[in-house]
Design brief:
Blueprint (H helix, E strand, L loop, with lengths): L1 H47 L4 E13 L2 E12 L16 E13 H5 L5 E15 L13 H4 L6 E17 L4 E13 L6 E17 L2 E18 L2 E11 L2 E10 L5 E12 H7 L2 H5 L4 E15 L7 E15 L2 E13 L10 E11 L2 E10 L5 E11 L3 H4 L5 E17 L8 H6 L2 E14 L3 E13 L2 E10 L2 E10 L1 H5 L6 E13 L22 E9 L2 E3 L2 E13 L2 E11 L2 E11 L5 E13 H7 L13 E15 L5 E20 L2 H4 L7 H5 E14 L2 E10 L4 E9 L4 E8 H12 L17 E9 L2 E6 L1 H27 L5 H8 L5 E6 L10 E2 L9 E6 L6
Parallel strand pairs: 4-5, 23-24, 23-25
Antiparallel strand pairs: 1-2, 2-3, 3-4, 5-6, 6-7, 7-8, 8-9, 9-10, 10-11, 11-12, 12-13, 13-14, 14-15, 15-16, 16-17, 17-18, 18-19, 19-20, 20-21, 21-22, 22-23, 24-26, 25-26, 26-27, 27-28, 28-29, 29-30, 30-31, 31-32, 32-33, 33-34, 34-35, 35-36, 36-37, 38-40, 39-40
Length: 873
Amino acid sequence: MRNARRILFRLFMFLLIVTVLFIVAGIFVSKKYGNEIKNYAITQVNRQLETKIAVEKINVSFFSHFPYLSVVFNNVAAMSGHDFDPLGFENVDTDTLFTAQKIYLQFNVFDILFGKYRIRRIHAANGSLNMLVDRQGKTNFRMFKQKKAAESGSRGFELEAVKLNGFDILFINRAKNITARAVLNDILFKGKFSGKNFSLGTIVSMDLLDFTREGVKYADHFGISARVIFQVRDSLATVEKGELNVNNLRMNIGGNFTLGSVSQMNLSLQSRGFDLHALQTSLPEPQRELIPVDLYGHGDIAFRINGPFSRIEVPDIKAVYLFNINRAKYNKRSFQNIKLKGRFSNGGQRNPVSTTILVEQYSIDDFNTSLNGTFLIKNLVQPYIRLTMKGDASAGAINEFFESDVASGFTGMLHPDFSLQTQLKGWKIENATKLLSTGLNGKMGVEDFGLTLNGKYAFSDVNGNIEFSGDTWYPILDLTSGLSHLELKLKMEHVFSYLMNTNSSLWISGDVNANRIDITPFIKSDDDGGSNGMFLFPDRVHARISVSMDTLTSGRFFAGKSDTYLQYKPGVFSFTSVHMKSMDGTIRGEGVIKQDRDKNLFLSTQSEVAHLNINTMFNSLNNFNQDFIVAGNLKGYLSGNIDFATSFDSLLNMNSKNTEADARIVINSGELINFEPIEKLSSFVELDELKHINFSRLENHIIIKDQTVFIPQMDIQSSAFNITVSGEHHFDNHFDYKLKVNLSDILAGKARHAKKENEAFGVIEPDSRRTNLYLTIAGTPDDFKIKYDKKEAIVNIKQDMKEEKGRLKTILNEEFGWFKKDSALEKRQTKQDDKFIIEWDQDTTPGSNVNIDKPTKKNEKRKFKIEWDEDDK
C-alpha cells in the first residue's frame, strides 16, 4: 500500500514538473519568438489566401488554447472573391465573405523550440459567413489560391483540426435557386489533413433555420447534429462510421464520396423505428398545414444518394419507407392501425419539379372502418396529386374530424370507391379547394346514414349512392326526417368550391319525390312563442327542383297528392305550377318569397282554390289563430281566386301593415252553427233557427289592406231569413258589420213553423215588394252590440223611392206620353212623408225600439209603424 502511494506521488510530481516546464517553455517561446511567429503566420496566410483580409489587431497568446501557442487575429473581415457577380442579391452584403471576432492559428510549442514552424489547428469564433453563388455558378467564397501558386508555402500548414463555432450562415445559390440560413453552433474537423491517407473525424451541431429550393421550403428550424468518421485515401473519403440526427430523426450513414474537379457521392442513410411524430414536426409549415393530423408510431426509411454534386449539381436521391401508425389524432378523434408503404425520388432533373412522393399502399383498420388505396404527389412546385380510396368507413368519425354549427351527429356507414387527381399551383392552403373540387371521380355508397342540421333538424336512414364527377355530385338517395320520407335524384354543381368558402355558387337541380313530408319540425317556434332565430336565405345557392308528394302535413294541415316546381336564387325563392289536393278540394297557384339586405322577407302568392271544405280548413289552420269564429261554427265549400302579399322581419314576425289580399270567393252549401252574433238576432227570429243557419250560395270580393278586412255588400239566402251583409274587420279585432234583414223573411219564418210542407229556404210570397230592417254589429269578439242602423235605412229608402219614381215615370211616358216636363212633376213630389207600415201575425213580437199598437181581437193583425223625424232624413 505504501509503495502504491509512493508511485502515485512520484507520478504526480513528475507531471507537475513537466507542466511547469511546459508553461515556462511556452512563456519563453512566446516572449522570444512572438514577433517572429506572428510574421510567419501572416506570411503563410497571405500565401494561401486569394481574398483580401482586414484585421484590427494581431497578438500572440499561450494560454488561450493551452497547450498550443496561438496567433490571434482580432475582428477579422474577409472580402468576397473578385470574379463573383453581385447583381441579383438584394439586401445582402455581397462585399463581405465572412467576419470573425477571433481567429486562432495554433502552433505546437516544441515545434517552435526546434525551429519547425507549422500551423497545426485553426479556430474561428463568433462571426458570420455569407456564401453566395451567382447565376453563372461563380462563387464569392473562393478564398484559397490555386494549388500551383500556393504550393511553395503549403509546408507552413500541417493541419490536424479546424473548428468553427458561433457563426451565422447565409447561403444563396442563384444557379439552383437555393436559399438557406443557419446558426452554426460547433463544427470540428479532426485529422491529418496534410497526408494522402488519414482518418477524418467530423462533429457538427447546428440549427437550420430554413432551407428553400425553387420556392419549396424543405426545412424550417431543424436541429441537426452529426458524428462521422471518414477514411480518406487520396480524394476518396469512405464513411467508416456515421450518425446523423435531424430533429430527433436518427439515421446511420454509410458509403463514400470523392472530392475533386468533379465530386461524386454514393451515400446511404437508414433509420429504423424512428418516431413518426418527430418526423412530422420536422416538416416545413406549408407541408405541415396540409397534414392536419398528429401521427404517432414508428417507421423505417432508407435513402440512397448517388451522383455528382457541386454548387450547380445535385445527386440523385431515392428513398423507400414503411410507416406503422399506431394512432392518428385529429381534434378529439383518433384512428388506429394505419400502415403506409411507399417511395421517394427527386427525379430525372434532380429538383423539386421532378420530385415524386408515392404511397404505394395505405390501409386503415380501425373500429368499423377499413380503408385502403394509393397516394401520389409529383412536382413539389406545382404539385400533381392523385388519391384512390376504397372500403368501408364509419360516419361517426366525422363528428370529431368535422366540427360545424351547421351539421353534426353523423351516424351510419360510408362506402367510398373513388379517385381524386388534380394539378395545383402551389402549396398554399387555399389551393386545397382545387384539390377537392377537380378530378374527383367515382362514387360513395351511403348506408343508414344520419345527421342533424343546425342542431334541430334530424335526418336518418339515408341510403343510396353519390356519384362524383369533378366538382359535380349526383346524389340518388332516400332519407327520413321525423315523419317525412323523401327520395332525391339531384345534380349538385361546384359542391367543394362552395363548401370551401370560395366565390363559387352551388347549383342544384333534379327531382324530389316523397310519400310524406311533414314540415312541422321546420317551422316550430321557441317555448316563449317567439321565432326560433334569424331566418337567412343562403348566399351563392341556385336551385331548380321538381317536387312531388303523396302527402304533405304541417300540424293539423294535411294535403294529398301535391306537385310543384321550386326555384331559388340568392334572395329569391319561387314556387310555380303548384297543384295540391287538400281539404276535400284542390289548390293551384304560384308564389315568390324575397329577402332584402336587412333580412326582411316579402311573400306574394296567387292561388285558385276549388271546393275546399271550410270546416276542415279552419281545423287544419288552427282557426287562423283566432277564436271569434271557429271550425265548429262553419260548414260549406269554398272556391275562388286569392291574391295575397305580406312581409316578415328577420325573425319571421309578420308585418301586418304590409299585408294585402284580394279574394274573389264563392261558398256553396254553407252552414253557420252556434255563431253568437247571429244568435243575438233572436228578437226577430226563433233562437232554434239561428243556432243552425243554412245558405245555398255566398259570393263576394274581399279586400285586405291597411290592416283591415273589407267585406263588400253580399246577399245571403239563408234558412232563417235572407240577409245582406257588409263591413270591416280590423287586425286589432275591432269590427263593424252592417246587416239588412228583409222583414217579410221574418214573417215567412213564422209561417214555416205553421206549415211543415214549406220549402227549406222559406215561403215564396206572391207580393214581390219587401220591407227591410237595418242593423249594425260592432265591437270586439269579447264585447259587441247589435242595434238599429237608422242612417243606412234612410239612405236606402231615398234610393228606393228615387228608383221607383223613375220606373213609374217611364211606364206612364211609354203608355200615355205623360211627364214630358219631368222637372215640374219632381218639384210637386219632393215633399212627401217617409212612412211605411209593417204587418205580421198575432204571435210575432218585434224588437223593443218600435211603437206597437195593441190589437183588440185575437188573430187581428197588428200594425207596425216606423216613423223617422225630419232630422233623420
